[in-house]
Amino acid sequence: SFKIIMGSMLDVLKWMWYHRNYIIIVVTPLAFLPLPLCVHPDYSQEAKCGFVIILMALYWCTECMPLAVTALLPVVLFPMMGIMKAGDVSIEYLKDSNMLFVGGLLVAIAVEHWNLHKRIALRVLLLVGVRPALLMMGFMIVSAFLSMWISNTATTAMMLPIAQAVLQQLQATETQAEERDFQNAAEENLGFEMESRKIKEGIPDEKNTDTKLQQENGIESMRENRRKAMEEKYSRLTKGMSLSVCYSASIGGTATLTGTTPNLILKGQIDKLYPGNGDVINFASWFGFAFPNMVLMLVISWLWLQFMFLGFNLKKSFGCGIKSDRDKEAYAVMKEEYKKLGGMKFAEGGVLTIFILLVLLWFTREPGFIPGWATVLFNKEDSFVSDGTVAIFMSMLFFVIPSQLFSGGSYGFTEAGKRIKAPPTLLNWQVVHERMPWNIILLLGGGFALAAGSEVNNQKLHIFKLTAALVVSGLSNWLGSSLAPLQKIPPFAISILLSLLVATFTECSSNTATTTLFLPILGSMATAIELHPLYVMLPCTIAASLAFMLPVATPPNAIAFSFGNLKVIDMVRAGFMLNIIGILCINLGINTWGYVMFDMGTFPQWANNTHSIP
Asked: For residue 122, what are the CA distances in angstroms to 118, 128, 245, 335?
């Protein structure tokens, strides 16, 4: 009977697990319904907003509904609960940050559509070479550079097949070299045996046969040992190369404002929570802080992965001297792949030109140390032109510039007299429609809507803008008193602890959801203890991209896990140390060049919002 009861309980638990999404969707709002219904009337609006935030946080963390669908909840719940008008909520879903995101994605789609990213990747790898350590360095540099401009997932998906092809060629050529060595050894043994037979004609044939069998067995045993050693070597190399690609894609995405979604969420939240910040986060200022940090993380990550999977035999890894046959053959594979691309087409040149112009315009719009072109031409009185304006303007050129030059005889006709059709433009809307991740735009909008709802309904709570919306009546005073001791803790310790918290949380939640949830809270906390908001918000934003330990943490990790014959423990071992390395690098940056760039030592006037409270 006990077994029957246990079996029934297991069946019930299995059923609940298989239907967990439906259970979470229904049970979560019912469980937290007392929050808006039972609190003191003075805190009813805050409690309603807190209910929405908790509900969305749990839905995002469990992914019981698609993230983008959960992000639309404020459109329904805020108006129905009297928190915000429907029109005001809807406006939040297409802010300037979303326009910047759309423009950056259009550039990435154009680069991928014309295979420009593959050309760049192969060209750099041909320059770097195929020795193990240099090859890993080359793949990491290319992956990091590409992910600065296109999505981390697209970078990983493009680079891993190239890495696999190169490693397979390396293994095949090394196997052939080993076979040649064994054949030469066998021929030498055969010649030696014939010579010895002439000398030892008096020895019986049985003894000669035994000696021959022993020699053959010894060669076979040596061959088997060498084969196993080679398989083990290339298994480690494949694991290391797969992880290096996916990790460097995540690291590279932190270097530019458009490189990954959390960066844009930070800009959006800073502009929303602190409207008078003077555009403290723009493309140039972000790049100035994040690019050196990215390079530092990339170098130390390469050293760690080199140690884990290749060892520190510098002569063997870097390969001093003449290239071996297998190196030349692997190099030939990449060269052949590059030749297949042919010469650079007009379309590729057009995309590359627009891409370079976009980056230059972003850098020079408002560099900080001198007036930028936008300040001189358009932003004399107010910030009319933003990075989003530039991104949309340049990306519109993809729909204007033709993908090939007009050619032929007389205008509009070929030499044979046939009419020439107009060439297609660099991009068409069908390609954009298929590749644009519209769900991310809704996800960004959901985060901005949450921040707007929290800001509107926290005027009564003064300095606790969003944090008070997360707690029930009477708890806000406790929270305020509990935050006060943080002023006695050194700021660098606060930054490190919060970065650790975010990096841990992002392993089991998307980095977009993590930053959307944490950044408004961190901003309120920084304001409460009069700490520069960027001192905690900036490190935690980058820490949200340090999801290195689990295959499910990010799509690049999942792709690498399927490609590299990895076990979860491999990723945990490598990723745990990289998380620590990343957090230390970020906090080193925020306390050195970042400290000077953003004047972290003073509490900025734009962060002091108490003057706006009636």
From this structure: 6, 10, 14, 8
Co-location of 9 and 106 in the same domain? no
pLDDT for 416 equals 61
Q: Are residues 78 and 220 in the same domain?
A: no
Mean pLDDT value across residues 85-114: 82
Query: Strand, helix or coil at 83?
Result: coil
CA atoms within 13 A on the CB side of 324: 17
What average pLDDT does this structure show over 1-16? Answer: 82
Q: Mean pLDDT score of the chain, rounded to an integer? A: 77
Is the Cβ–Cβ distance between 528 and 470 less than 8 Å? no
Six-digit token pair at 486? Answer: 């943080």
Does 120 lie in the same domain as 73?
no
In sequence order, the 6+-apart residues with CB closer than 8 A to the CB of 452 are 84, 88, 89, 92, 272
Contact status, residue 274 vs residue 534, Cβ threshold 8 Å? no
Say what the pLDDT of residue 435 is: 83
Residues 147, 252: Cα–Cα separation, whole Å = 5
The pLDDT, as a whole number, for residue 332 is: 76
pLDDT at 496: 92
Q: Which of 109, 138, 134 is nearest to 121 (CA)?
A: 138
Using CA atoms, how far residue 454 sits from 70, 240, 272, 468, in Å, is 17, 45, 11, 9
Domain check: are 47 and 117 in the same one?
Answer: no
Q: Collect all residues with Cβ–Cβ distance below 8 Å to 222 and sequence separation of at least 6.
A: 182
Distance, C-alpha 327 to centroid of its chain: 31
**pLDDT at site 460:** 33
CA 567 to chain centre: 21
Quick check: 506 and 547 in contact, CB under 8 A?
Answer: yes
Residue 512 CB partners (closer than 8 Å, separation 6+): 67, 261, 262, 265, 440, 443, 444, 447
Contacts of 288 (CB under 8 A, 6+ apart): 368, 593, 597
pLDDT higher at 453 or 471? 453
Judge whether residue 327 has pLDDT over 70: no
Q: How far is CA 310 from the centre of its chain?
A: 24
Q: Is there a single domain that holds both residue 82 and residue 97?
A: no
Highest averaged pLDDT of the listed ranges 10-14, 202-206, 566-570? 10-14
CA-CA distance, 318 to 310, in Å (whole number)? 11
Strand, coil or helix: 386: coil
Residue 425 pairs with which residues in a beta bridge? 402
- Could you give the maximum distance between any two Cα atoms of the chain, in Å? 115
What distance in Å separates the CA atoms of residue 549 and residue 552, rounded to the nearest whole number? 9
Could you tell me the residue range of the domain that residue 38 belongs to?
Answer: 1-87
Task: DSSP for 278-322, please give it.
Answer: -S-S-HHHHHHHHHHHHHHHHHHHHHHHIIIII-S-HIIIII-SS
In a domain, 203, yes or no: no
Per-residue pLDDT tens for 282-297? Answer: 888 899 999 999 999 9
